[in-house]
Each structure stands twice: as structure tokens, then as C-alpha cells.
Design goal:
The protein has 360 residues and is α/β, with parallel strands linked by helices. It has 12 helices and 12 strands. The protein has 3 domains: 1-101 and 260-360, Isopropylmalate Dehydrogenase (3-Layer(aba) Sandwich), CATH 3.40.718.10; 106-110 and 162-245 and 253-258, no CATH class; 122-161, no CATH class. The strands form 2 sheets. It has a 10-stranded mixed sheet with strand order 2-1-3-12-11-4-5-10-8-9, sandwiched between helices. A two-stranded antiparallel ribbon has the order 6-7. Helix 1 links the parallel strand 1 (2-8) and strand 2 (31-37). The protein is globular, with a radius of gyration of 21 Å. The two termini are 21 Å apart. Bound molecules: nicotinamide-adenine-dinucleotide. Nicotinamide-adenine-dinucleotide binds next to loops.
Amino acid sequence: MTHNITLIRGDGVGPELAEATRRVLEATGVKFNWDIQDAGVDIMETAGTPLPPQVLESIRKNKVAIKAPITTPIGTGFRSVNVAIRKELDLYACLRPSKSYAGVRSRYENIDLVIVRENTEDLYAGIEFEEGKPETKKLINEIEKISKKKIRPDSGISIKPISKTGTEKIVRFAFDYAVENKRKKVTAITKANIMKYTDGLFYHVAREVAKNYEGKIEYEERLIDNMCMQLVQKPEIYDVMVLPNLYGDILSDLCAGLAGGLGIAPGANIGKDIAVFEAVHGSAPKYKGQNKVNPTALILSGVMMLRYLKETGAADRLEKAVAKVIAEGKEVTYDLKPHRDDPTAVGTSQMADAIIKALA
Ligand code: NAD
């Protein structure tokens, strides 16, 4: 079967990573019909927008996309293209596995954690009111009237909506992922002792959902501050973690750090029937066009895509090939060498070549 996939080349180091990933994915023997799309700052001048409508149309049509990083332009009035794609397509689940690979320098071994982050609600919903604006003053007055609590008049306000609907969807996603991937436990993480009506609601809904998986998947709860310490001290006791948007964003970087950094951290944004796969890292503009950065994170996002497409054999072989190249430590990029200025480091495309060789 040939898979129709939207390939978004991104900007900064994006196009180099997209090309390396495309070549590696093709070398697995799986057949792809690529619909190559451009988005990001490089096409803003010609397209008038960093996210031309045909990019979203292509993803809607193909249902699966792999996306290289895209810069968030500063001072142009455009919000993040990455956030816009997630919102437009209702990609409510952000899935970020963190796994140790031999050869990646880290303070920890045997990390095997999965973050499931809610992607559409919480303080990231973009409902914000600027300090000093008339509508902000109006809102402050209303809140003071209703809540009988004082807010300083020179405050900015960000709204944190957390719904039963959104929470149920994300917690179900976490449990279903745990079942499908033979994991043992889901930990729900919030600050419900302080935010009773948002984070408290998240727990309440999570407990109800967890009842459907009793006997199959264990369920537990942790507070986010405690969880940060626990993950640093004993990451081996955790498995799948489900969190509202903001905590999920922060904790997924912590977990990427435990496993060895951004160069190897893959991710996916998944909705009801659409999925967009992307690395956790950004467009690293200072390395643009230098054939320098590590393609592993986007290639491992490609491994996640293969699993989503039920190409399990190809996914296993590709992950093994990546692991082999990293473990050998020869044909790897600068960030995987003992010293960052190691002259034996290879470039993005040469590391992709080594992975292709290891696949054979
Ligand atoms: P970044 O992840 O692009 O880079 C930070 C540093 O991490 C780099 O300078 C580099 O030293 C290292 N790094 C990142 N990726 C690497 C790789 N593959 N191999 C080796 N080293 C790597 O973060 P930033 O500088 O904060 O962001 C740059 C731009 O990317 C911003 O505009 C930001 O908004 C955007 N961004 C996009 C995404 C996305 O597309 N999903 C995600 C995060 C940031």
C-alpha cells in the first residue's frame, strides 16, 4: 500500500531535516506518495503568510503529515504556525516519548517515559487580556463583582479553560495508548490542591475514565511540583503521564533532558482522524543551510508515523537502525560526540546515509 503523506519542509534547518527524513523513510521499503508543502518564514514574502491555506488543505486531505520545524516570526502579528496547525485541525493530543539510546550522553539510563499533553485548552488557549486596556479593566470589574475577590487594577489576565470534554478526550487517549503499547500505568499530573475547579476537574474526569481500564492499566495522581522532583530522582517508576497543556509542555522538556536532549526527542500531534508528526526541537536558525544538526528527532518522529500507519515492521527496523548508528557513535552529528567541536562529527545528510546503510 502507498501512503499519501503531507511533508512540510519548514524553515531554518527544517528543509535539511525534512529531506534526510524523507530519504530514510523511503529506505524502509514502505511506499509513500509525498505531497511536499512549504510553510514558515522563508515563504512569507511570496505567500503573504507563513501558513498558506493549501498546507492545511493538504493535511486535511491526506490525514497524515510529517512536519519539519517552523520559526515563530517575532513582531509580525503572526502567532506560531505550529500552534495554528494544532488548533485548526483540532490535534488535541500531543504525544512525546522520551527514551534512552545507548551512545547518547545523559545522566540517566533506561529512561522510557511517555508524555501525553492536552493540546488545545488551558492557559495556551490564547485568551489573554493586556494590562491597561479598557476590556481588561471591564473584565477585572466583572470578576471582582462575581468572585468578591480583589485583582490589582494594573494586572494582565490569561484565562485557563479546562473542560470535561477536552479532559475526557485526552485521558482516554492516554489510556488507549497505554493499552495499545503494552504500558502498565497512567499518571495524571496537575496542581489540583490549588486550582480546584480546573485541575480538580481534570482529576475528577480522569478518575471516571480510569474506571474503564481497571485491571488493565494502573492509575495514579501526582502534583506537578512533586512530579518534577520525582522524575529527577526516580524516573524509572513512571510510565505514561497525562497532563493539561502548560504542565505537559514543561514536563516534556524535562523528560527530553532526562533522555539526552532535544536532538533525539520526537513527537506527534494527534486528533480524531488526523496526525502531524514533528520533532520537539525548533528551527535552530543559526545552523540553517550548514548540514550540521541532528536529524534523529525528526526521523524518530517518522518512526512514530510508521507505527501510526500500522507499518510496525518498518518502524521497528528503522528504530533499530537509528539506535545502531547512535550506539556506534561514528557517523553522528556534533551533538552526539563527546565534545561539540569533535572534527569527526558528520553532517545531517551523512548521518541519514549511515542510518540508511544500517537499514540494509
Ligand atoms: P531550537 O530547538 O530551534 O534550538 C535551540 C538549540 O538547540 C539550537 O541552537 C541547537 O543548539 C539545539 N538544537 C535544536 N535542534 C537540534 C538538532 N536537531 N540537532 C542538534 N542541536 C539542536 O529552539 P529555539 O532557538 O528556542 O527556537 C528557534 C525557533 O524555532 C523559534 O522561532 C521557535 O519558536 C521555533 N520552534 C518551533 C518548534 C516547532 O516547529 N514545533 C518547536 C520549538 C521552537
